[in-house]
Amino acid sequence: MLVAERHKKILNTVVEEGSVRVSQLSKMFGFTEETIRRDLEKLEREGKLKRTHGGAISIQEGEKDLPYAKRETQRVSEKEEIAQLALSFIEEDDCILLDGSSTANFLAKALPNIPLTVITNSVRALMELMPKEKIHVICTGGSFSHTAHSFLGPLTIQSLDNYHADKAFISCKALDAKWGISEANDMQAMVKKKMLEIAQTNFLLLDHSKVGKKAITNVAGLEKIDYIISDALADTELINEIKSKDVQVISPDK
After folding, report:
1. In the CATH scheme, what is the code of domain 3-62?
2. Segments of the chain assigned to CATH 3.40.50.1360
3. Which of 149, 166, 188, 247 has the most C-beta neighbours closer than 10 Å?
4. Are 86 and 107 in contact (CB under 8 A)?
5. Which residues pair with 100 in a beta bridge?
6. What architecture does CATH give domain 68-250?
7. 0.85 exceeded by the pTM?
8. Closest CA to 72 of 64, 84, 80
């Protein structure tokens, strides 16, 4: 395989998957990991992708907030797995926060019809919770984002200032052990940051594809998170680095 052909196939894979690991590309194309790293370095210099710890992400995926309709169809089994793990931390009469992420919406779907208070800025979560009459639902309001299918902006922040919650369940665009939690835009970051401030215990829900990456806007450092709930595919090396920051990591095999 010619170098140019390999580079084209690597780039196509990164764009299609959103993110890839060096080890994955090495097995896929039959070249050493060192060769793949050099390929990724060259493609990054050409502005075609962005390297991450142990792999690369698509610039198309990594620099913008994807429409909710696309996000909710990605990594469905992983998000369902994460939601089931999160359920074990929710008790009757809890007051919980759910952000506008697709992962938190999977948790909204999974919530049993028991006495709870749910505060959310997510329209999709509201729709999932409407049939569950034992759950008291509080909507933040604010400026509706057609891309995010949630409420954002100053009015959303102002609304959240009126509440205290037992637990917050949020997701994010990316998580890096040093940079912390980050998002694709300021508006999303502001809401998530406020939710972390007003909750007693904070849970970060994220699938393996977001671990070891950075997005443009910082939300908070890992010191603001009590638990990270991820899926079975999360990279062990990256998870161990996060655990060293005194964050409890919950996943099926960790």
Report:
1. 1.10.10.10
2. 68-250
3. 188
4. yes
5. none
6. 3-Layer(aba) Sandwich (3.40)
7. no
8. 80
